[in-house]
Amino acid sequence: MIGTDTISRVIGQDVYDESGDKIGSAAEVYLDDETGQPEWVTVRTGMFGTKESFVPIRNADLTNDGLRVPVSKSKVKDAPKVDTDGHLSPQEEQELYRYYGMGAGTDTAQTMTTTESTTGMATNDMATNDMATTGMAGTGRTDTDLNERGTVGHDTSGPTTDDAMTLSEERLNVGTRSEEVGRARLRKYVVTENVTETVPVSHEEVRLEREPITDANIGNAMDGPAISEEEHEVVLHAETPVVEKEAVPVERVRLDKTTVTEQTQVSEGLRKEEVELDGDGTTTDRRV
Question: Domains in the chain, ordered, with CATH?
Answer without folding.
Answer: 4-123 (3.90.50.10)
